[in-house]
Amino acid sequence: MSKNKDVVVLTGAGLIGVAISRRVGAGKHLVVADLSMENAERVAKDLYNAGFETTAATVDISSRKSIQALIKEAQSFGEITGVINGAGVSPSQAPIEAVLKVDLYGTAVLLEEFGQVIAEGGSAVTISSQSGHRLGSLSEEESELLATTPTEELLNLEMVQAKNVKDTLHAYQLSKRCNVLRVMSEATKWGKRGARINSISPGIIITPLANDELNGPRGEGYRRMIDGSPVGRAGTADEVANVAELLMSDRGSFISGSDFLMDAGVTASYWYGDLSPKMFK
Amino acid sequence: MSKNKDVVVLTGAGLIGVAISRRVGAGKHLVVADLSMENAERVAKDLYNAGFETTAATVDISSRKSIQALIKEAQSFGEITGVINGAGVSPSQAPIEAVLKVDLYGTAVLLEEFGQVIAEGGSAVTISSQSGHRLGSLSEEESELLATTPTEELLNLEMVQAKNVKDTLHAYQLSKRCNVLRVMSEATKWGKRGARINSISPGIIITPLANDELNGPRGEGYRRMIDGSPVGRAGTADEVANVAELLMSDRGSFISGSDFLMDAGVTASYWYGDLSPKMFK
Amino acid sequence: MSKNKDVVVLTGAGLIGVAISRRVGAGKHLVVADLSMENAERVAKDLYNAGFETTAATVDISSRKSIQALIKEAQSFGEITGVINGAGVSPSQAPIEAVLKVDLYGTAVLLEEFGQVIAEGGSAVTISSQSGHRLGSLSEEESELLATTPTEELLNLEMVQAKNVKDTLHAYQLSKRCNVLRVMSEATKWGKRGARINSISPGIIITPLANDELNGPRGEGYRRMIDGSPVGRAGTADEVANVAELLMSDRGSFISGSDFLMDAGVTASYWYGDLSPKMFK
Amino acid sequence: MSKNKDVVVLTGAGLIGVAISRRVGAGKHLVVADLSMENAERVAKDLYNAGFETTAATVDISSRKSIQALIKEAQSFGEITGVINGAGVSPSQAPIEAVLKVDLYGTAVLLEEFGQVIAEGGSAVTISSQSGHRLGSLSEEESELLATTPTEELLNLEMVQAKNVKDTLHAYQLSKRCNVLRVMSEATKWGKRGARINSISPGIIITPLANDELNGPRGEGYRRMIDGSPVGRAGTADEVANVAELLMSDRGSFISGSDFLMDAGVTASYWYGDLSPKMFK
């Protein structure tokens, strides 16, 4: 058997990324990278104690240098055959600039950099969000700008300048729409290496933080949204992993450049059902 | 055990619908409906000889009465817990009016009618097409019209009148985009019954007919499109079934109102890669 | 939608049971039962924070009354449609009597009791062990005794009396073989309710405890066993869940009364390869 | 991308083998081999028209030379990463000698020969039968003889000599038990190449021939067996493919040397339920 293992890189050590890693990481070397080394080490240890071979690392996806350093570290264990990107900041945690720097620009850099080293037959999934599906129509020109503007010029686009971005939620929606569009343009490049890339746009997925919010002062609004959705419940990270595993395995080998919305029908209901836009303020 | 079986209805007895039926039909009663009774019977017999309990039926999805009759027949075997819609006409087979009547209006009626009888916990998948993803941007108003106009008024919409539809391909793209939007608005209704509905937009999937085309006079263009796609090959009905099975099973129980594009990255490449729009004429 | 949820009961809140629960528990009510209420509560809370609706409970599977009380509690949430049994004691933790009382008798009682309440369409998986596959040949008579002796008389069988049981490992192997045989005889009863039951016999699956052992004084022996196995590595609870999920879902609806050995080929190598019996002392 | 494709070899072009091929063959080169070139060509054409890249070939698995020639042909397309063995003769079609020559000896040769060329990471599934599970207990010595006797001496074993084999059913049961044991001993060798091998023992799976029998003069007996089984129905080749796909994919990468019985609980019921041995005469 070959000395070097297949390497899977997880960026952003949250519940969804971990659930996906558990599906695709067995028998491989799993690099668990997070902005916080403490998080990365805790998750890497949990996964080690669940049978995975892991290394903890730090990464700031808004920094190309940091991503390049992570790639170099990952390559020391073998060829990178899988990438799971769950890194990002939420619109309630960060100011507009940070959302755009991390979620819009950072994701674009990450896809670009891993696209230059991904192994033949490799595959990536990046976690976008249902939020991007509530942004409304973009013109073909706007879509093309988000999809194809050279990464280092993305933050100079007129449409993401302060005056054109209403609030952090708007910045987040723009970023998540951009993720999906970058996945499209990157897919054409990853394809030339025999690799694939897709995104998943999850709805409300329960985490400890989400449960705190559901039980907190703004909880009633969220619960109304969940109860009013077609499926009528929140989702689990394990359900996101159901889709991610298909996309990253041979079963999904015909799929590239796609986004998979899984949100209990919230988006459908936002546009054409009971969940009126007012509920999402 | 209960006398009545779970019933799965397949409309359109083509390769994709059959592949999906094989995944979700075991132990259930499978009603195989097609415009041609001969087709329906041939497929029903094949599936019977592969271990499935089947009944052949006819349906013209452009007729509400025909769909209602099919539903009545299906219900005679038990509750309808699954619907697989693969019926439709292709833009190279039919004039503009027929494409709109079957693919746009017919699909809308079918989703509406089955949405009034689907069992709690039931699930449907309708086969759309990558073509809908090449239509270009619609305004929010246009999308809403396609999504929510009462079904019997759909063919009166200004945007589908003869003067506004360039050719059969355009009619097909409009229809397939409409399918995805109807799935969204229907999902909000199916949800109230505890049921789910999603669509899949496949790319080039090989069938005997497709192989004839690939080896025929226009084959070179198709082959260039396939070879130039990010994945670099055509797909199989079985791969579409990988996604459909997830959507129709418990593994997809958080997913409703979504469309899943699986096209080897052709759409991505059409918009932002090597597959220029000229190749799709 | 119906008020009552489908209920899945997990007995034994270890890593394998939890991994399976994450696959099959979404949208259902999950009763997490363990001998230790502290364990049950910790796991129930973790799963709650991962999006599952959970209740913690205690159960001593060696007590029929305790199992009956658990069933009653579970039924208060709805019909029991799934059972995951991961409860048991290990031969290195407990004396012979306890191994037989819990692993042999307790499992038999549990399968019997749940078999009297399982819903139509329901399914169970019980976790056995590769150890049972190293016991060696039993005669048809011995197998039949383990399979069909009335549960309350199982511990009176000659073959499980102190003089006939060498050590705790032997007691464990007998128990695990018995589990597989009880699954066979129970499957015929569960079938009459339209329900299914199967077992999985995992090999070395990594847990925090297992890692401690691998890094401890006896670690070298274990590592030699893992390295010498055909697959060459230990397994993960998530991989056991791959098989359990298939067995418990519609995809496994033709399967009942079976045992699925997944052990990296250790059993094969023990009998016919490099892993000589001496390594298992 | 590499010029050479991954090659999957199917031996025995029956319904089960074809169903498995459809799951694991997309994007690979599929060599469809059968004793009858006519069968091989028909199936290869069907699969070609379902999107698979195929080559038809002949093979007589009871001939080492024939297997070696098949391997050579398969290798001309690339590395062999998958093997699906569905070849064999049924006890109602052939005399004792032929059953032993093909099902017992032939399968053993096939596993041995492919085990010398299988790619690292490769995987095989061989189709055994529930019949082997009704043979009754073998001693450890007998099992070891079937598992490890050099292939060319297998047919000289005392236990397979004419005087010790009651009828063709007995020959078939011995052969199928032998398959499972050869899989164990081969797994230890395949493991040294980083490859895995497992078997599946299906119960009554519907094929056109099976339907003829069910509707024929001996049909009542079969139907009683099916109706009396715990699951209460016959199975489909697609359900066997559910298990085979798991075993051959990354999801089953911890599994080697195992046999997976999937038979509606018939074996369980034969030994410990309503299906008395008399029904199987």
TrEMBL record, chains A, B, C, D:
Keywords: Oxidoreductase
InterPro entries (alphabetical): NAD(P)-bd_dom_sf, SDR_fam
Keyword hit for tRNA processing: no
Protein's UniProt keywords contain Oxidoreductase: yes
Leader sequence segment: none
Family of this protein: Belongs to the short-chain dehydrogenases/reductases (SDR) family.
Name of the protein in question: SDR family oxidoreductase
Lineage of producing organism: Bacteria, Bacillati, Bacillota, Bacilli, Lactobacillales
